[in-house]
Design a protein that fits this description.
- It is a single chain.
- The chain has helices spanning 2-10, 13-38, 48-71, 80-83, 94-110, 113-142, 144-152.
- It is an all-alpha fold and 155 residues long.
- The chain has one domain (2-152): Four Helix Bundle (Hemerythrin (Met), subunit A).
- 30% of the residues are buried.
- The mean pLDDT is 85.
Length: 155
């Protein structure tokens, strides 16, 4: 238990998130390579391309909104409400969702099976490996206010 605390203190949220984003990038590159070689298509319908553009734009805007909001986070007198601003009111991990929608949208636009598949895989890895670790660090750092926030915002 004490070793876990020391390990969590040595890690920063930004380092954990950087690893998570790297997983998205590596799986995206892997998907591109597989799609170039095998050229499998996901959909036959032409409606998928506009949906892809919407996802791509939504993902980009969500990431930008999350980054702007997190820069303006107040650092003193932390309470549950401290965390409930911008997209953080709806989800605890808006940048992760933004990356997911952005890359998934690109996969839809290009009709690339492996980009879509590897985007889903990278989302699952990020959610259950890196975001779990991030939340432990935040709970250790902010304590009860973060845990209250975590209870009220489920995603």
């Amino acid at each position: 238990m004490e070793n876990d605390k020391i390990h969590l203190q040595k890690q920063s949220v930004h380092k954990v998130l950087a690893h998570s984003y790297s997983v998205y990038f590596l799986f995206f590159l892997l998907g591109v390579c597989f799609d170039l070689v095998l050229n499998l298509k996901v959909f036959n319908a032409s409606i998928v391309m506009p949906v892809g553009f919407i996802l791509l734009i939504f993902g980009t805007l969500l990431i930008l909104w999350a980054q702007k909001t997190s820069r303006n986070l107040k650092k003193d007198n932390i309470s549950k409400e401290t965390f409930c601003h911008g997209p953080y009111y709806f989800t605890r991990t808006p940048t992760n969702f933004g990356l997911f929608f952005l890359i998934l949208g690109f996969g839809f636009i290009t009709n690339a099976f492996f980009i879509v598949l590897f985007t889903l895989i990278s989302f699952i890895i990020a959610k259950f490996v890196f975001l779990d670790r991030e939340e432990k660090i935040l709970a250790e750092k902010y304590g009860a206010p973060y845990l209250e926030y975590k209870k009220s915002v489920k995603f």
